[in-house]
Design goal:
By secondary structure, the protein is of the alpha/beta class. The protein has 12 helices and 15 strands. It has a 7-stranded mixed beta sheet with strand order 4-10-9-8-7-5-6, sandwiched between helices. Strands 1-2-3-13 form a 4-stranded mixed beta sheet. Strands 11-12-15-14 form a 4-stranded antiparallel beta sheet, with helices on one face. β7, α8 and β8 form a beta-alpha-beta unit. α2 packs antiparallel against α9 and α10 runs parallel beside α12. The relative contact order is 0.17. Bound molecules: pyridoxal-5'-phosphate (PLP).
Amino acid sequence: MTTYARQPVSFARGEGVWLWDTSGRRYLDALSGIAVCGLGHTHPAVTEAICKQAGTLIHTSNLFTIDVQAQLGEQLCAIANMDAVFFCNSGAEANEAAIKLARLFGHKKGTVEPAVIVMEGSFHGRTLATLTATGNPKLQQGFAPLMPGFIRAPYNDLSALEVIARERNDVVAVLMEPIIGEGGICLPGPQYIAAVRRLCDAQGWLLMLDEIQTGMGRTGRWFCYQHEQVLPDVVTLAKGLGNGFPIGACLARGAAATVFTPGTHGTTFGGNPLACRVSLAVLDAIEQEKLCPRAAELGTYLIAGLEEHLHQLKGVTEIRGKGLMVGIELEHPCGELVRGALAQGLVMNVTAGNVIRLLPPLVIERGEIDMIVNVVAHIVREFLQELKGS
Ligand code: PLP
């Protein structure tokens, strides 16, 4: 079905930060399959994990103990400071689990119709509940009736949440991205998430962070909340967790970790031995190759390079980001730049209409970042020149 307006290029092979199309042309990947392939393409440890586990055991179902799932759960809980995990197969499923968890948490304390606060500009997935949670009316168009039980609030606005706290007694949780990704790489103020944490504590709400795009080292720490010494109650992951092998996870801590009991939630494929073995290899490689500090350092380098070339240009509104999650906001819609970049051998993305989004693999080298900066600077300059002339 035509759910995507696709670019006219098909990739046949990948290695590290490089992709080759079916005609053998090489491209530098500054998108990582939308923040998925943090270790780059065909990382040897990932390939080996897939091959070995596929030759041993792929799937048994969650009716049985899965040792490799338990092992992955323990390791993830240790790095995320969480107590328990539900494994699934995608980001939307991880958020579905979080939303169900919040509702059950609410019902258990006597809230008849529990509500979850969600943010304007957010993206949480395409299933009905996660689409409802998503703060983008364009994506919701045509899918009414949406789900009840969500309250929309402006992002990065603590007082809006305080008003909701005063006016309503049905709220059980806040679900939000620590950096808005699809919505345009929007970073909150430095104290915002900590302040939301304090409000959640005061109100008895769960703080649920969607780290599907920001997690797994992307912003320079394992998880974005670790920049702020804030601990959420629930964290959702997917994307970089399997480096391209589908896996998602909903992690929880404290009271939130014991909300689900046998029969309250489930999945056939989630947490299968193959997906979990791959994810263990991903965790190991991120640790061994020190990719979190590397993402922090190279992200600073990338932003500095972009600022040097683009900062003074009229038509460039802002360059912003954290680690290797970087956005360049232009004054005008610039979706056509994706094709312009492809013509120059660069894979990148434009989101929210006017924000160039760069999400290169965390294994990228400085020289390759220089290439990204040069191509982006070139196509943005040309684009702005053409706009001026038109
Ligand atoms: N949450 C965030 C922050 C995302 O960026 C995405 C995907 O872009 C999702 C959820 C949905 O993940 P998936 O496409 O794996 O369902």
